[in-house]
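PROTOCOL LOG
Step 1. Enter all chains and additional molecules of the complex.
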Amino acid sequence: MDKGKILVVEDDRAVGNLIMTALQTGEYECRLAGTGGEAILEAAAYNPDVIILDLGLPDMDGIQVIDKVRGWSEMPIVIVSARGDDTDKVAGLDAGADDYLTKPFSVEELLARIRVALRRRRSESTDPMEQAGVYRNGDMAIHYLSGRVFLKGQEIHLTPMEYRLLCLLAQNTGRVLTHNYLLREAWGDSQAGDTPALRVYMATLRKKIERVPSQPKYIQTHVGIGYRMIRQEVSPGASERT
Amino acid sequence: MGKMEEDREVLACISAAPSSAKVLRAAMSMAGAMGRGCVALLVETPEIQRQESGSEERLQENMRMAQEMGARLRMVYGDDTASQIAEYARESGIRQIFVGKSNHRGSLWNPREDLASQLARLLPEAQIYIIPDDQPRYRKRRVPGRPEKISRAGLGRMAAVFLAATLLGDLFYKTGLGDSNIIMVYILGVLVTAIWTGGWFYSAVASLLGVLSFNFLFTTPRFTLHAYDAGYPVTFLIMLTVGIVTSSLAMKLKRQARISAQKAYRMEVLLETSQGLQKAEDEEEILHYTAQQLNKLLDREITFYGRDRDGRIRLLEGFPGEGAGKGQEGVEGRAMPEWREAAVRWVYENNRYAGYGTKALPDIPDMFLAVRGQKGVLAVVGMEAKGLPVPDSFEKNLLLTILEECGLAIRKERLAQEKQRAEVKARQESLRANLLRSISHDLRTPLTGILGNAGMLLENEELLGREKRGELYLDIYDDAMWLTNLVENLLSVTRIENGNMELHMEAELLEEVFGEARRHLDRRAGEHEISWALEDDLLMAKMDVRLIIQVLVNMVNNAVKYTPPGSHICLSARRAGGKIAVEIADDGPGIPEEDKAHLFEMFYTSGGRQADGRRGMGLGLALCRAIVTAHGGEIGMRDNLPHGSIFFFTLEAVEVNTDG
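Step 2. Run joint prediction.
Step 3. Record the structure below.
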């Protein structure tokens, strides 16, 4: 059965083994590449659904691999890096990676990230509602044309900045957006750097959207890195009247 | 002065004489051989300012040479060269004095004792080295004053005084007060003229006129220039002499008043400068202050240039700053003309002056001087020169002295910084050694656990019951988790103890931080009731979020470790002034008094109260303290009521305006 094809790029044999075993147990089809060069070749030939990419490779910088792959494909890339190295992660995400994993990570965490990435891959082209100018995610809906946001059919009122941020997150559902990215996109270059304001807008936005703001369902916070919109499992029968 | 023998410097007396170079070289080589410093002393006498042209330049050249050779240049003011030198030497405890053999032997009228003999008389305890001069005979020619300008005002004053004296004399004559009083009146008139006009010419003319009119008006036969009394010619002569002598005395007085005013001004400027330099807290302030003083002195734009490690020339400080732009960008962003950069580079490389009015690069409009240290140039000062009045020797000397003071201040500042760095480094070294010792011990325990458990599972898997296996797996997991946390702490420690801790300070929402910290807690934390309370959802503080999460995790894990399962742990945050106070409160048994004082010390673990009897490299709380301190916050602990403890720390609050 086709759960998805995954390319694992990892030079450490033991960790590579662990990831491969975990993926095979999860019934994914997968392949292992030990160097950046190999990774780029495999990414083109094998055409995976997701790439798990360790940033520390023997032959080249992981960021270069992302650059190369992004040259022709939007396939989800999950980067793996050592803890405490936020700058690496942010650089990877800014280069176009979708998500990150911090070493040491647990198997559940790895599988969860892969599920998120695969969901993004699938919803990318095949979301019919997206075409109609409506974004749906769980109980939330954004009507791009009228600029209105609904939660369980109830319209919620957002400030222009909150709306802009929500749209950015929604358009990149499943991807971790870095603070820099959000600042650049939402404020434009002129005012970039006003992180406190970004934090506050995100907090107020979360308060309006999440039922339990301390356990967010839609907007995930990645401290020191950025934010991400999570795709909710489609709850059957939850069809809003809009 | 109770100076140690080895502190005593060597004194070289320099002047405008060409032999000064030789004197300097001799003094420097002796100073070098004895490992002492050398002072080049210049005595500025009133005459020095009236010397023939050319000697001024030679004087500047000699001063420059003294500085280039590394001597400390000092200037004193006074009439008598020998006594000034003697006084300076006595005050600074100098024993070795180098003088040039003066070849100006005084004149027939003025048979002077030469300088060396005078010094020997004044300083019997000193050793005086006389450097013979093979230079061509050099005569200190005195130029008898600048040709005076005869001004209308001076003539007017003279005439007025003369008229008054004549009228008074006439009055005396009519009332028969006698000749001698009339003479006195005229002498008084000459004196007044001398003081009032301050010129040789006027007083000479006044005395001559006085004699003539006395003769003409008041001696019999009156209204002729004949005198019958045989004593009168003598009277005339005395009167003329008195007039000239008094006027020359008065002028000397005036000159000395001017010199002492200059001296006072100089002292004031220097005192102010050195006080200001002492107050300056870093190099930037030193330079800024110096620039300000020089600007006050010379009334022109002053700029300081430095050279960074790559050898690029940079503008450091300026006064008045362009548009008073103290903002770094304002100063640094300004493009530096190429010639300026070249001149600064030249000064750096040659340790000589350059620019307008000097020998090197005289075509450029600015003048560049070096601020010297022991090992070359510390900074270069540039000043506008073209089109502005050339500083006179007084200003130049003051300028050089200020620059020297500035150089001293910079050297002192750099030394202090170096010392501080060395101290920090030594502290870090000992810390690291302690850390290593402690880690190697603490790593062994969980590793033994992992190895043993894994080995057991590998070999006896079938023999172990399902439940037992699960227990072993869990132990491995726990030990690995503990190691992970340990590594995390170690990473933070190395980041901090590397000295130049680079904090990535950002405004963060406490809510997000608490949420993240909670995800990193020990598995055992599940046995405790952990809650959090925020005064306001939008509480925000400036922090390096990774490190502060580390602090929270350590503190909560600590609370978990030292309280029995089921205890309550509550995280809270509230505003307190411009700060955010974060608290971690538990209702455990509390901390014994004897441990409280040592809680935040490195490698301290609460002796008999360890929850599991084996873990804890008392690193956690010490690390917390280091992190919070680096953030500029406070950290501490107090008792909770009715029992338990509260750990707290503060961070700088951030207020945000989201109206935009």
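Step 4. Note key features.
Residues 140-145, 322-333, 607-615 of chain B have pLDDT under 50 and may be disordered.
The domain at 423-500 of chain B is CATH 1.10.287.130 (Helix Hairpins).
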